[in-house]
Structure formats: C-alpha cells, structure tokens
Specification:
five-stranded parallel β-sheet; alpha/beta; 578 residues
Length: 578
C-alpha cells in the first residue's frame, strides 16, 4: 500500500524522538482528507494520540506539538513539516506520491487497500454473521432489505480483509403461526396454486386463516393442535411444514440472486426445538430457571436492585424465541467455533440481544463477550407509484422501471446490450447508497426522486462515474503497468487531490472494519467520484501531449479501479455503460 511507505518513514522519525515503537505509531498517522481549502498531499499526526489518558490543556498540547515538530527533519519523502492545532503536518514529495500511488493500485488491483499494514498485523479470524432472516411462507418483505444488504456488506468487508466468514440465514420457520397456517391449509389450500405461485398462495391462506380464527373459536384450537403435532414431530404435519419451508427458500434464493447476495447456510428456529429443552434443563440445574404463578419460565436478570427478567418458556413447557436463540448460539459455537458472532437486525431487538448475551454469560459461556449485535433503524415512506410498498420485489421492480424510463429520456444514454440488466444494477446501487449514507442506527425518510438523481450524491452518480471512467479505457486503452508514467505530468491541483484521496483508501476500509458502518466508504466513494469528475474536466486525455495523456489515463484507470473495489464491497456491481 502506497500509504504504508509514507507512514513507515514518518513513524521512524517519530519513534526516535518519542522513544516508542514505530508499530505503535502507524495507526496514529493519517492521510490528510482532501478539502476545497487544502490540495497539498500529506499526513498528520495528532500528539494527543500518544499522551495516554493524561489530561492536559490545549496550550500544553500545542507546546508539545511545536517542540516535536522542531525536532523532525525533511527528507526525500517529507518535503515540508508544519503544525496545526494539536497536530504535526507532513507534506509529501508530490512526484513520489504520484509514482507510489499508481504503482500500488496497479500492482494490488482488487486488493488495493486491504494489503495495507493496517490489516496485515491483525490475525485471521473466523466470523459468523447472521443476517436477512425472513419469515418463511411469506413473500420477502421490504423490511428485511436493510438486514440483507448490511449483513452482505459486513461479510464482504471481513472477507476482503482476510477473515474467514460464514454467512448464516436464520429463517423464522417455527412458532404458533405455522400451526395456524398448517391447519387452515389442510382445509383451504390448493396444491395447484402452491406449485404455480407458492408464496402468494401461502400469504392468501394465512390471511384467510386469521379471519377464520376471529370468527370461529375452533380454528384456534385446530392451530394449537397442529403446532403440537409439529413439536411432537408427527410425520404428516412435519411433511407439510417442510414443503412450506422448501418452497419459501426456493423463492428467496431468486430474490437474493437479484440482490447479489448468497449464504453458506440456511438455518432456522425449527432446528433448535429439541436443543431448547436441553437449554431449559441446564438453566434449571444451575438454579437460573424460575416459574411465575402462571407457570411461565423466567430467568432473573436483575442487577443493582433493578427488577428485570426474561421469559424463556411458556406455561405449557414450549419454547420461546429467545430460548431458540440461546440454543442456536450454543450450537453455532460448538459447530463453527467462531471468534466473533455478529447479528444484524433492526434496533427494536436491542433489548432482546442484551438479554440473550446476558443469559449466555449466566450459563457460563464467556464467549458471549465475542457476540455483537449490529442494530439498524427503520425506513419510512418507501412506496411505489401505485401506493404503499410491502414486498421487496415491488421495490426492486420499481427501481428498475424508473431507471429504464430515465435512461430512455436521456440523450447521452449509450446503446446497451442488456438495458434491463443495467437498469437493475443501477437501481440496486441507488437503493444501497441511499441506505448506507447515514449511521445504520438512524431511521431515514425514503424519497424516489432523491434516490435516483444522476448528479447528486447517489448510487446512480457512482454508476455513471464508473461507466464514464471505463469508457476512457475503451477509447484510449488500458494500461498494464505504470513504471514508465512520468509523475511530473500529474502535478496539477486536480491530479494531486485525486491521488491524495486514493492514498486514504486503506484508512477508510480500516475505519469501516472497526465500527461496521458503511457510511465511511460511501462518503469516500462519492468524494472520489466528484474528484475524478473535476480532474477529467480540467485534465483531458484527448488532445494532450503523449506523456500527459498516458499519465492522466493511468490516473483515471486507478480511480476507476478503487471505485469499483469499493462499490463491490458495498454489494454493488459496477456497470461499464449507461
């Protein structure tokens, strides 16, 4: 990584003065973000990062900053040293910057950024990520979109940075609702409809079942009886339920293919019925399981005088959602032995996961400390032009349709081999960027016009920028190496700003890998696209002298490579024409 070379040189100087290991200083040396006020390339070192927990006034820190800067010297890498508020600034040799960044991007290709020493010293981990998790026998609800794309991003990022990832889809495939569905399907279900349009038919049956239960008390009893048969593993009931599960997964796989998402395992609550009873026995043996007057099994989670508990068993002895999660967590740890387990669900489940991890600790499973919940907010106002949206398929179809309409009405649209596929990819990019621009825990208001803008900070703009940069390569050819590129031809402010931004890519990936927030990468890629557009406007390839044309072409190819890398991590397939 280009930045590593510069960080190493700076860290070596700081190490001698501060009497600290260079390795302990590397992560405190940051590439300076590009801004309208600042185009010079370089790094900054915040003095407070090495002061530990000691409290010092701003004036004391500034004095130490000044003294440190006075002891540092320029060399063939650092051309100028200055100070800011609590920081030392290192200006980098601009020709060396151009040469180093281009060489590293071309050499590392799709691994640019992740080969950085920011990641190289971290051990490879086994990471299990549970995400998406729709309820079977229902069409894929739009509410599961966020979990699906967020979990996919985290998995992509962890895999790219060298970890072994297991992608788990934990289906909602058990509970009293399947007793109701199974009982009423036996009365009203159609084998023909189940084959032709399975999920739509199961939704219709379930709606009818709920209506019938309100009008007829015997339906409720039939549902309870069917679910009891399921729990007892009676063959006829289990066979019908298994069909519901199989057809659901078949339909979901089609939706995941549209989203570009895959899973290593389809698990579900149903897998843990018997193991739930084992969990309850262990809780009882450890004296953790208490019973209310109604017979409900609870675990006391009170701390420091507060009164809180978690229900883990119904009065009839059957399991609850959290009991199945306890069994699933224990089973996964035994089966996969992950270093980390990550759960991606909406923030309404924060309390649930706090209780889950707390009970696991009470059971003596210290690995619960390695479990992590990634909560996300709600999307408000997501609807098609026909009205309120319920199913994800409607949203994807609408995005594709609206992109096709806009492409057809735009004079600059290129002739495409497969307009539908391009529109699908652009539409999905628009949805993902809209979703990832803010903190995951934040709710946001959905707006089609804002999502599909081609000139704003949108997924459409990223796709357009990638296609435009790719067209330069089609016209002027792809460079295979950059050793002969003259860095003196890339000293314009626009070129330096773009190179400095490319230099920061590994830090952005590291930041996202730490807090699992995609917004860092989204904002970086949007800025990259704006910088590339500004550079292309001021530094044309066509009509330039050969040396400048070659250097600029290599710079734009490097920008497109990094843009494509980042988009793929987000779950976006870059288009080459639009």
């Amino acid at each position: 990584m280009a930045a590593c070379r510069f960080r190493r040189r700076i860290a070596a100087q700081l190490s001698n003065i501060l009497e600290m290991s260079p390795d302990n200083l590397i992560k405190s040396i940051h590439a300076i973000p590009v801004s309208k006020k600042r185009h010079s390339p370089g790094f900054q070192f915040f003095v407070s990062s090495v002061l530990g927990g000691s409290k010092q006034s701003k004036s004391d820190i500034q004095l130490q900053t000044q003294r440190l800067a006075e002891q540092l010297k320029c060399d063939d890498v650092v051309s100028e040293i200055s100070t800011g508020e609590g920081r030392v600034n290192f200006r980098i040799n601009q020709e060396l910057l151009a040469k180093s960044v281009l060489q590293r991007v071309f050499q590392d290709g799709s691994e640019y950024g992740v080969k950085s020493e920011l990641f190289s010293r971290r051990p490879t981990r086994k990471i299990l990520i549970e995400f998406s998790s729709p309820n079977i026998a229902k069409k894929f609800h739009v509410g599961h979109l966020r979990s699906t794309i967020i979990g996919n991003f985290i998995a992509n990022l962890k895999e790219a940075t060298g970890h072994r990832v297991t992608r788990m889809n934990y289906l909602g495939d058990w509970g009293m609702q399947f007793g109701l569905l199974g009982a009423v399907f036996q009365l009203l279900g159609s084998e023909e409809k189940l084959k032709s349009n399975p999920l739509q038919h199961l939704v219709e049956v379930y709606i009818e079942a709920n209506k019938a239960m309100e009008e007829d008390e015997t339906i409720k009893k039939m549902a309870q009886d069917f679910f009891r048969k399921l729990e007892a593993r009676e063959e006829e009931a289990l066979s019908l339920w298994q069909r519901f599960r199989d057809v659901s997964i078949e339909e979901y796989v089609k939706m995941y293919q549209r989203l570009g998402v895959s899973f290593d395992e389809y698990s579900g609550e149903s897998f843990y019925q018997e193991k739930c009873q084992e969990v309850l026995k262990v809780l009882d043996a450890k004296g953790l399981l208490k019973k209310t007057e109604e017979g409900t099994g609870i675990v006391d989670l009170s701390e420091k005088g507060d009164r809180s508990y978690s229900a883990v068993m119904r009065h009839d002895g059957t399991s609850l959602y959290i009991t199945r999660d306890l069994a699933a967590a224990i089973d996964r740890m035994d089966k996969y032995d992950p270093d980390t387990m990550i759960y991606v669900t909406d923030k309404s489940q924060i309390s649930h996961f706090q209780q889950l991890f707390q009970i696991l600790k009470l059971l003596g499973h210290q690995w619960a400390e390695r479990c992590r919940h990634v909560p996300f907010g709600r999307v408000q106002g997501m609807r098609t032009r026909k009205g309120e949206v319920v199913f994800l398929e409607d949203v994807l179809d609408e995005a594709c349709s609206m992109v096709l309409e806009r492409m057809a009405s735009t004079k600059t649209t290129k002739e495409l081999a497969d307009p539908l596929e391009t529109a699908e990819r652009v539409g999905l990019a628009a949805l993902i960027i809209q979703d990832f621009r803010g903190l995951l825990s934040s709710d946001y208001q959905f707006n089609w016009d804002r999502v599909l803008q081609s000139r704003g900070d949108t997924g459409v703009f990223l796709q357009y920028t990638h296609a435009r940069l790719h067209s330069l390569e089609e016209v002027f050819g792809r460079a295979s190496r950059v050793s002969h590129v003259d860095p003196a031809c890339l000293q314009d402010p626009q070129a330096i700003s773009l190179l400095q931004h490319l230099l920061r890519y590994d830090e952005i990936l590291y930041q996202s890998s730490q807090d699992l927030q995609p917004k860092h990468l989204v904002l970086y890629l949007l800025a990259l696209s704006h910088l590339a557009a500004a550079a292309h406007k001021m530094l044309p390839v066509k009509g330039s002298v050969p040396a400048a044309a070659e250097a600029r072409s290599a710079l734009f190819q490097a920008a497109r490579t990094v843009l494509a890398n980042g988009m793929k991590l987000l779950g976006i397939t870059p288009v080459t024409r639009m």
